[in-house]
Amino acid sequence: MNRMGITCLYLNVRPEEIEPLLKHPQRIDELMEDVERGLNIDKAWDGLAALLKDLPIDVVFGGTPLETGHEFAYGQPRYLSPEQVMIAAESLPGVLRYDGPAMTGVYPGVDDEEYYRRHYAGLWDFLSACAKNGDAVVVTLL
């Protein structure tokens, strides 16, 4: 059975795209169409938010909301500046301490350490690459 749910998409925003996006946030659609530039952490977003809550940058719910004029499942996309991306990327190594009991009540109700570790590794790789390139990141819950 294929169950729909809220997933989290990270989009890298190249340095030359940052100012135009901030001036015209409704252009987020153009970035979202380029699936090669993003990372989808599926439904692991809430669990990762709980497991990574002590980071100096909230990589799921942090950043500045972008008023896009579009309806999204869980609020407007959020913008993490290149500086915030750098701090997050530098803070991620070795911070995941899996705590199964802490996952009680976390969406989507998955207590699967490998599932979260896989998405954590993908997020770490993605943010590290973005930080290296000076990219900003947009976080969207869909």
Keywords for this entry:
five-stranded antiparallel sheet; 142 residues; 14% strand; 37% helix; 5 helices; alpha+beta
| H/E element sequence | EHHEHEEHHE
Alpha carbon gyration radius: 15 Å
Bin the strand percentage.
Answer: 5-15%
What would the average pLDDT be, to the nearest integer? Answer: 88
The helix/strand class is alpha+beta
Low-confidence stretches: none
- Alpha plus pi helix count: 5
- Tally of domains: 1
How many β-strand runs? 5
What best-fitting shape do the alpha-carbon axes yield?
globular
Helix content: 25-40%
| Measured distance between first and last alpha carbons | 20 Å
Pfam family, one: DUF1877
InterPro entries: DUF1877 (IPR015068), YfbM-like_sf (IPR035944)
Protein name: DUF1877 family protein
Organism: Herbidospora galbida
Structure explained in plain terms:
37% of the residues lie in helices and 14% in strands. By secondary structure, the protein is α+β, with helices and mostly antiparallel strands. It has one domain. Helix 4 crosses helix 5. The longest helix has 21 residues. The chain is globular and about 45 Å long. This is DUF1877 family protein. Pfam families: DUF1877.
Outline the secondary-structure elements.
Layout: E1 8-13, H1 15-23, H2 28-33, E2 38-40, H3 45-51, E3 64-65, E4 78-80, H4 82-91, H5 113-133, E5 136-141
Antiparallel strand pairs: 1-2, 1-5, 3-4, 4-5
Helix pairs in contact: 4-5
